[in-house]
Amino acid sequence: MELRQLEYFVAVTEEQTFTRAAERVHISQSGVSAQIRQLERELGTDLFDRSTRTATLTTAGKAALEPARAALAAAAALRQAVDAVTGLLRGRLTVAMVTGCTVTPLFDALAAFHQAHPGVEILLLEGASDQLVHQVRAGQADLALVGCATTTPDGLEALTITCDQLVAAVPPGHALARQRHVTLADLAAHPIACMPPGTGLRTVFDQACAAHGVTPRITLQASAADAIADLATRGLAIGILSTSMAAAYRDRLTALTLDAGTPALLALIWKNTPNPAVREFLTHSRDAFSAPRPA
After folding, report:
1. What stretches of the chain show up as alpha helix (H) in DSSP?
2. How many of the other CB atoms lie within 10 Å of CB of 128?
3. Fewer CB atoms near the end CB (10 Å): N or C, the chain?
């Protein structure tokens, strides 16, 4: 008894004719008939009443139908289980991140995953957050580290990495440097250096400005926090960064708490039906991001 014989048996039962069953399984009608005959010889009884134009199950055929379906389902489950293992032995994991991102724990997670599963090729991509969300939804990336204003983009799962307020980064001699807090209205008279549209931080900033009726004068745009910090250090514009980003530049910039309302989030996103490689990488990611960092 072979699985293909059971597959043909179920197909004929569901299609009710040998002709349609043959079309469904993509072989000739004579091939289907021959395999069904072979199955009947092995079982010692007819499975179909062939006295009419419609293939009708005999009593024995009715008894055999559910076990046949169960056998096919078990074979499919076996195949999926093996695929789950081989998917972690070979294949590709595509991870995307926002342009200019230097989040060390992400790289730690990539290294740990590679050490555990050296046969899986790792592909790393960069882009704007909105582009990366689209790539994950379209299956072009397995996971992405993105900036966003909400924890979970529609239809995706997310692991929040950081949840920061926006800050205005200025050099010590700036007119606003003596203030501990600034409002969006305080920024209106000054040039702004910010990330470009499509990034999570820019989305949060734009939404906050719109909610407060403020039109910022964004004169400089850069995708990397380092570039924004360098521009702000030279007094060319007030840099808009998140609290965690600005901490790296506290030796040359003063981070002023900005009353923007919605926090800026950095999150790892993936589809809600992850493949085995994604699940394994998420395990390494949770370990890497929860590990204490050097002071």
Report:
1. 3-15, 18-25, 29-43, 59-86, 104-116, 129-138, 184-187, 200-212, 225-233, 243-246, 276-290
2. 20
3. C
Give 29-65 pLDDT, tens digit per residue.
Answer: 999 899 999 999 999 999 998 888 888 899 998 999 9
**CA dist list (Å): 210 to 145, 163, 188, 241, 276:** 26, 21, 13, 18, 42
Helices then strands, each counted (H, E), the chain:
11, 13
Dihedral, CA of residue 63, residue 65, residue 68 and residue 72, to nearest 10: -160
- Is 148 in contact with 203 (CB distance < 8 Å)? yes
Measured CA to CA, the distance from residue 97 to residue 4 in angstroms comes to: 45
Q: What tokens appear for 246 in the block?
A: 């600005």
Task: Look at residue 295 in the predicted model and tell me its pLDDT.
Answer: 47
Strands of the sheet containing 120-127, edge to edge, are: 120-127, 91-98, 143-148, 264-271, 156-164
**Class for domain 91-162+266-290, per CATH?**
alpha beta
Token pair for residue 205?
Answer: 């900033």
Beta bridge pairs of residue 123: 94
Residue 262 tokens read as 């919605």
Q: Output DSSP code: residue 195.
A: P
Give domain limits for the chain: 3-86, 91-162+266-290, 166-262
Q: How many CB atoms lie within 10 A of CB 249?
A: 20
